Amino acid sequence: MPHIVVIGAGVVGLSTAIRLQEAGHKVTIVARDLPGDPKNIKYTSPWAGAHHVSVATGADMRLHEFDKETFGVMSEMIKADPSLPLIFAPQIEYREGPRPEGDTDQVSLLGRYHPDFRRLEPSELPEEIQHGAAFTCILIDTPHYLPYLLKRFKSKGGVTHRATVPDIASALSVSPELALADAIVHSTGLGARETVGDKDVFPTRGQLVIVRAPWIKGGKTRLGQGVYTYTIPRKSGDVVIGGSADANDWDPTPRPELTEKIKRLGLAMHPELLPPEKRAAGRIEDLDVVELAAGLRPTRKGGIRLESDEIAVGGRKIPVIHNYGHGGYGYQSSWGTARAAVQLVEGALAGAPVHSKL
Ligand SMILES: Cc1cc2nc3c(=O)[nH]c(=O)nc-3n(C[C@H](O)[C@H](O)[C@H](O)COP(=O)(O)OP(=O)(O)OC[C@H]3O[C@@H](n4cnc5c(N)ncnc54)[C@H](O)[C@@H]3O)c2cc1C
Question: 85 exposed, middle or buried (CB, 10 Å; 0-12, 13-18, 19+)?
Answer without folding.
Answer: middle
